[in-house]
Amino acid sequence: MRAERSAAGPTRRHDRRGRIALRLGTWLIAAIALLGATGSAAGRTPNAAIEGGSTFAAQSGFSYQAGPSVPPHVAALTRESAPREAPNRLRAVGASLLLPGLGHRAGGHFGRARFFMMAEVAILAGIAVSELQGHARKQGYIDYAEQFAGVAGIDGKPDWYYRNLGQYRSSEDYRDEIQRTARSLYGDDLEARAAYVAENAPAPGEAWEWASDEHRREFRDRRKESRNAFRRASLFLGAALLNRLVSAVDAARLAGRDAGPRASVYYRPEEEGSGYLCLRWAFD
């Protein structure tokens, strides 16, 4: 992608210079036409001859009426080319935020659209797989604890319970830790210490005791794998948001580039060899 941006840099600079030159030329023609229209309004002859019978006239905005002999540089404009309709940037951004690549597809950039859409499919697949792995592994370590720690019906417990389950060999060891913490917090206030222990100690139905430390460590590793899977799902979700943001910015950039110049000059031929050099200006 870096090489693509560096290769596109000179092209963008060239397009920018071309647009600036076109705007300056357009304003120059508009100024001349306005001066001609002002002179006619001040009392000059409306069809005053200028350079071999060519006259200025205020038709279709700003127009130039050529004489019987059309100059070569004007005759080259006989094929009228209307400017392409500028893509809507807001529409491209909204479509890309809804589905990455959709704004590119609407603008005709099918290669980029396929890239962003394929990236979105891969990211959504990663989210789905990671979520399934996380839930499957969570159910696995819960079943493992029910088998080797002597607990039952612990599905749906808060995360701190599973963390303590993997950190302490038994619920009695955890209770001793709570009592030491209560003693350090409340000192000789036995009532406050008892209230702290009753609030934080596991309930009788939540008591556990591992068959061995190896089983406890195995439970902790399985829980870690489940948490890593859920963490990967969160990372994929962030990648999905980033994919939408990059797609929207790129679609808006391409829509602005494809809009082309805001002004155009074209030649409109008329009967009897006459014609008009017209200025078209697009307003957003």
Low-confidence stretches: 1-14, 31-70, 73-86
Mean pLDDT: 75
C-alpha Rg, in Å? Answer: 38 Å
Helicity, in percent?
55-70%
Termini gap: 32 Å
Overall number of strands: 4
Q: What share of residues are in beta strands?
A: 5-15%
Q: Order the strands across the largest sheet as they lie in space.
A: 1-2
Return the structural class: mainly alpha
Q: What can be said about the biggest beta sheet?
A: 2 strands, antiparallel
Secondary-structure element order, as H and E? HEEHHHHHHHHEE
Shape: elongated
Count of DSSP helices? 9
Annotation keywords:
284 residues, mainly alpha, two-stranded antiparallel ribbon, two-stranded antiparallel sheet, 9 helices, 4 strands, disordered N terminus
